[in-house]
Design brief:
Bound molecules: 2'-monophosphoadenosine-5'-diphosphate
Structural class: alpha/beta
CATH superfamily of the largest domain: NAD(P)-binding Rossmann-like Domain
Strand order of the largest sheet: 2-1-3-5-6-4
Number of helices: 10
Distance between the termini: 37 Å
Strand content: 15-25%
Shape: globular
Order of helices and strands: EHEHEEHEEHEHEHEHEEHEHH
Length: 273
């Protein structure tokens, strides 16, 4: 029987995941398809039941179900457990459902592909302290990054994330003043997103020109943050790589094959103009 996969979310019609995974299935000679499934908030349990009945081999989970799906799974990876968020579900032999989270590891893969080696010794600052920030902070720590600090508008939330990495928690003002200390600065707030508020979460005048600046927002590809960082001479990493890598790691869990991320990034970049 032809295998099939899905992404569950609300909204989901805009998702680039179906086209991305179908291209990878074709590239790797696999006879499988991937469909978007619109699942309103509060109905993810019914959706899981339906997908099981209809024989899906795995699926991605996006907003607003990453936490809500957990009770419907049989097992969960340690990273997803720590984050209380699942973005990938795999059907194991025997019919058990396993949840994992490839968002944070996807960010790390994308950073390393775009910015090279020798990154682990650099001091990292993450701007923002929501779900994306905490996944990235944990994944960086697990990948061996030595020092991961967090700054946020609400400092208490930065403290909660930094407690997981052993790094410092800073206010946005402190971070702005001390920005030159950091070799990697990662923007995880919705500031700069085409649907969010414009501008910068903090001023970049003290950014070190040798730093790497990464944004997880990819619509638009060139955020104000990345433009301002590039203007100071920094190396920049856009958010599209994280999206592609989280998908690639999900694909690997389902098929055992790590697909070509660079080719996919180039293709999506062309499509986005
Ligand atoms: P996600 O789960 O996608 O990371 P989230 O949990 O809503 O999203 O987190 C958004 C983060 O962006 C939060 O850290 C938020 O700061 P607060 O904790 O103070 O709310 C931050 N954020 C949102 N809008 C912001 C703004 N205009 N300026 C600075 N930080 C902002």
């Amino acid at each position: 029987m032809k295998k099939w996969y899905a992404v569950l979310g609300d909204p989901v019609s805009h998702s680039k995941s179906p086209a991305m995974h179908e291209a990878w299935f074709e590239e790797n000679g696999l006879d499988a398809s991937y469909v978007p499934v619109h699942v309103p908030e509060g109905t993810v349990g019914e959706a899981v039941q339906a997908l099981k009945t209809l024989g899906a081999s795995g699926w991605n989970v996006t907003v607003p179900h990453k936490q809500a799906i957990i009770p419907y799974l049989d097992e969960i990876d340690p990273l997803a457990e720590q984050m209380q968020a699942v973005n990938t579900v795999s059907l194991l032999p025997g019919g058990r459902l396993r949840g994992s989270n490839t968002d944070g590891p996807g960010f790390v893969g994308s950073l390393e592909q775009a910015a090279g080696t020798g990154l682990k010794e650099k001091k990292v600052l993450i701007i923002g302290a929501g779900g994306a920030s905490s996944g990235i902070a944990l994944a960086l720590s697990q990948a061996g990054y030595r020092s991961v600090s967090v700054c946020n508008r609400t400092v208490k939330k930065a403290e909660a994330v930094a407690a997981r990495t052993g790094g410092e928690a800073l206010s946005l003002q402190e971070a702005e003043r001390r920005l030159g200390e950091f070799g990697i600065v990662i923007q995880t707030t919705p500031v700069g997103m085409s649907t969010g508020s414009s501008g910068l979460p903090l001023g970049l005048q003290n950014l070190s020109p040798g730093a790497v600046a990464a944004d997880i927002v990819y619509s638009p590809l060139e955020t104000e943050f990345l433009k301002a960082a590039a203007a100071t001479g920094c190396k920049t990493v856009d958010g599209l790589g994280m999206f592609v890598f989280q998908g690639a790691l999900a694909f690997e869990r389902w098929t055992g094959i790590l697909p070509d991320t660079q080719k996919m990034k180039d293709r999506l970049m062309n499509e986005m103009g």
